Amino acid sequence: MTNERKRETRDKIIFGGLVFKAGLRKADRAFLLGALIEASRIPSDTAQYRQLREIGMEAFRLLVNDERLSQVPIIVETPDAETMHAINVKRLQDFSGLAAIPDGYVLAALTAA
C-alpha cells in the first residue's frame, strides 16, 4: 500500500468518525453529501463559517472533557508531527482546562506515513 493510499484511508476513517460524533450515523447518505457540499461553499472569512467552526470546537471540548473518557489515554496523530504535535497537545490542554497535560495522558505523536 502506498503512502498516499494509507493517508487516504486514514482520512476516510477520521471523516467517518466525525459523522458519528455529529450524531449522523444513521442519516441518509444523500443528505450528508448535500450538507457537506453546501458547507464547502461557505467562505472561511464569513460569520457563518466561524459559527459552524465554533460549534465543532465546542463538540471537541465536550468530548475531551467527557467523564467517561477521563481514564483513557489519548493518541495524538498528526501528519506533520515535528510542527503539529505541540500545537495539538496545546489544543487538548486548552480544551481540558488543565494547566498541563498529565504524564501518560498523551501516548504518542504518530505521523501519517
Quick structural gist:
The chain is built from four helices and two strands.
Structure write-up:
By secondary structure, the protein is mainly α. The protein is 58% helix and 8% strand. It is built from four helices and two strands. It has helices at residues 3-21, 29-40, 47-64, 81-96; strands spanning 74-77, 106-110. A two-stranded parallel sheet has the order 1-2. The protein is globular, with a radius of gyration of 16 Å. 1% of the residues are buried. Residues 107-113 have low confidence and may be disordered.
Along the chain, the helix and strand elements come as HHHEHE
C-alpha termini separation: 11 Å
Q: Could you describe the largest sheet, including whether it forms a barrel?
A: 2 strands, parallel
- Radius of gyration over C-alpha positions, nearest whole angstrom: 16 Å
Pick out the low-confidence regions: 107-113
Number of helices: 4
Anisotropy-based shape: globular
Q: In what order do the strands lie side by side in the largest sheet? A: 1-2
Count of extended strands:
2
Helix/strand structural class? mainly alpha
Helix content: 55-70%
Strand content: 5-15%
